[in-house]
Amino acid sequence: TQLLEQSPQFLSIQEGENLTVYCNSSSVFSSLQWYRQEPGEGPVLLVTVVTGGEVKKLKRLTFQFGDARKDSSLHITAAQPGDTGLYLCAGGRYGNKLVFGAGTILRVKS
Amino acid sequence: NAGVMQNPRHLVRRRGQEARLRCSPMKGHSHVYWYRQLPEEGLKFMVYLQKENIIDESGMPKERFSAEFPKEGPSILRIQQVVRGDSAAYFCASSPLDSYEQYFGPGTRLTVT
Questions:
Q1: pLDDT at A2 > cutoff 70
Q2: Residue B51: pLDDT above 80?
Q3: Cα–Cα distance measured from residue A105 to residue B14, given in angstroms and rounded to the nearest whole number
Q4: What DSSP assignment string belongs to A71-96?
Q5: Residues of chain A positioned with their CB less than 8 A from the CB of B2
Q6: How far, in Å, are A39, A42, A110, B22 from residue A105 at the CA level?
Q7: Cβ(B95)–Cβ(B29) under 8 Å?
Q8: Using CB atoms, which residue from A40, A50, A100 is nearest to B100?
């Protein structure tokens, strides 16, 4: 059974601070997706990484896929209240189901 | 460019009734996935379908749950004789052929009273 462990579970920070969320597994994934979910809504895809060592940037968000494709990280620079939400990592294989981590609840205080 | 559509958004059923959840994938997407999010739990895979075919139903409970994706029309997740433990948010996702990426709908919140 493939499992994805996310840490931390909860994160409460002040506006302007930096943060990193981690996603780790003992299994190799072909791809790793990061989603953000607001209360009462579905997950919104932020990024997909597929190559070991790959780094992708989306404005203030930086995503990295580990060399062995077993782990990933999401780094947010200068967090803003609008970044508040549930961040989910999900591992998958081509054309197959996604395995989700339990999520990181981020709260950014102004 | 409409996203994944799900309806209803909220559904209330009494124990023993049937629940039907609908999902229309994004235009051009041929793969549909259903996931369930129980209170205080993460998203769990239920079933993966292509048009007229169930590809992987390893996450579906063995009884009372069924899914279809007909040639025409939306994908349907059907829960017969609902019980309180079925109360959850049910999400549908779709992806195009030859892609890792899955795009989620807004979900259906099922409450069993």
A1: no
A2: yes
A3: 32
A4: EEEEEESS--GGG-EEEEEEEE-TTS
A5: none
A6: 11, 15, 16, 29
A7: yes
A8: A50
